[in-house]
Design brief:
Elements (H helix, E strand, L loop, with lengths): L1 H6 L9 E2 L2 E2 L4 E5 L2 E4 L4 E4 L14 H12 L9 H13 L5 E5 L2 H16 L3 E5 L27 H7 L10 E4 L4 H11 L3 E6 L15 H12 L2 E5 L11 H6 L5 E4 L10 E5 L1 H8 L13 H42 L5 E4 L3 E5 L14 H4 L4 H13 L2 E2 L5 E3 L6 H19 L1
Parallel strand pairs: 5-15, 7-8, 7-9, 9-10, 10-11
Antiparallel strand pairs: 1-2, 3-4, 4-5, 6-12, 11-12, 13-14, 14-16
The protein binds 4'-deoxy-4'-aminopyridoxal-5'-phosphate (PMP).
4'-deoxy-4'-aminopyridoxal-5'-phosphate binds next to helix 4.
């Protein structure tokens, strides 16, 4: 880490931090659900690249397809058949995807969706929700910080709202409202609805805890967007191909106008996808809205995506059932072991992705975190402490509370993880 800091700003990349400090673990290799660091220590991995590795580290089919394509040459800024093979596949799988385009990162795909919505509606303002993250570009700067008092934190929704006017051009037109709250949204839209170009949302909030939409919430969002002529964008960068083959929109059966995928679509190869109704995507087809990027549809990544979707279309039932079952066992097990020790804990979400945290106040309901503000009642410092002790016991988890499962996590992994959870809770927290 000391050597790294001399040339790499901060010594680690920005998302490898524990609390305010770099997390000084350097990894060498990964297979399935396991990772090894440079000192030879083995970890069960629930970070999974922050979501992409749905089929675990290095699934042979995906790696093989990617490598084979690499050797066919670096075909950039030129057509290749794999690209439309992948777009046909996404259209087949995702109900709203009449037309599709590919990029590299989720952030870029979000940028593309907002640009389309603004062009189609002739309106500038974009509405997003507190605690949701749509990439790190200025045009939709996020609201993530669990600590509203953190100095100079432009990520907090209040800070975002205040500073919104300081961004240049269209970036300034962002409104932030609480999520899972239809009355507040209705009130806002009754006054401003016809000035809003797009509502963008994670259909399940995964960047603050893992918060399911309240029953009827997504349907109500859909209706309000239709009523006011607003483009509804589902950002499925985390939920896509994870909560079901067709993402959260498949799981909840609500159709957005535009949608964004990244992460799991290629099990870790760099590719994102912007897709949606012809009415909007057609603007790209007609040359009215640009969609650029030197490395868009990078052939090895496209080949990796096709191999991933091949596996998910072929074995999807087993893949999703496995994650629901093992993730469910883990969620139940954490609750039981914490209860045994008398430690209040919140565990909520789904088998393939769930959230764990320690509440600072008494929690009655099983699902205690329902929006960004309620997430502030969780003890982040204690969780940071927990994460550090778990890593010492060979279980790697994200410091902010999300646990990602892959189809390769076994019952033995779950047993070992639950033993570590119990030991850490007993030794460091009880
Ligand atoms: N949207 C969501 C919901 C995300 O979680 C992320 C990344 N975590 C992004 C967009 C941005 O994707 P990327 O990091 O690939 O730019």
């Amino acid at each position: 880490l000391e050597r790294s800091k001399k040339s790499l700003a901060g010594g680690v990349s920005s998302n490898v931090r524990l609390g305010d400090k770099p997390f000084p673990l350097f990894f060498e290799r990964g297979t399935g659900s396991h990772l090894w660091d440079v000192d030879g220590n083995e970890y069960i991995d629930y970070v999974l690249g922050r979501g992409p590795l749905l089929l675990g580290h290095t699934p042979p089919e995906v790696i093989q397809a990617t490598c084979d394509q690499m050797w066919r040459g670096q075909i950039y800024a030129a057509q290749h058949e794999l690209e439309f093979e992948l777009s046909e596949r996404v259209s087949r799988i995702v109900p709203c995807a009449d037309l599709v385009r590919f990029g590299i990162s989720g952030s870029e795909a979000v940028h593309g969706a907002l640009r389309l919505a603004r062009a189609a509606t002739g309106r500038q303002t974009v509405l997003k929700f507190e605690g949701q993250y749509h990439g790190w570009l200025d045009n939709i700067l996020y609201s993530l910080s669990p600590d509203p008092n953190r100095a100079g934190d432009a990520l907090h929704p209040a800070a975002l709202a205040e500073s919104a006017g300081q961004f240049s051009g269209t970036e300034s037109h962002v409104v932030v409202l609480p999520w899972n709250n239809i009355p507040v949204l209705e009130e806002y839209l009754a006054q401003h609805g016809t000035t809003i170009a797009a509502i963008i949302t994670e259909p399940v909030m995964c960047n603050t805890a893992v918060i399911p939409p309240l029953p009827g919430y997504l349907e109500a969002l859909r209706d309000l967007c239709t009523q006011y002529g607003i483009v509804l964008i589902f950002d499925e960068v985390i939920t896509g191909f994870r909560l079901s083959l067709a993402g959260a929109q498949g799981r909840f059966n609500v159709k957005p106008d535009l949608t964004i995928f990244g992460k799991a679509i290629a099990n870790g190869m760099p590719i994102s996808c912007l897709a949606g109704r012809e009415q909007y995507m057609g603007l790209i087809a007609a040359g009215k809205v640009g969609h650029g990027g030197t490395y868009n549809s990078l052939p090895p990544a496209v080949a990796g995506a096709i191999a991933t979707l091949d596996m998910l279309e072929r074995d999807g039932a087993a893949v999703y059932a496995t994650m629901e079952r093992t993730g469910g066992r883990l969620m139940d097990g954490i609750k039981q072991r914490a209860a045994k020790l008398g430690i209040p804990v919140v565990v909520q979400g789904y088998g393939p992705i769930f959230y764990m945290g320690f509440p600072t106040t008494e929690v009655a309901a099983d699902q205690a975190v329902y929006d960004y503000r309620s997430s502030l009642a969780m003890d982040q410092e204690l969780y940071t402490h927990f994460v550090s002790a778990m890593v010492d016991r060979g279980v790697r988890i994200i410091p902010r509370g999300n646990w990602f499962l892959s189809s390769t996590h076994s019952d033995a992994d779950i047993d070992q993880t639950l033993d570590a959870v119990e030991a850490v809770l007993a030794e460091t927290i009880a």
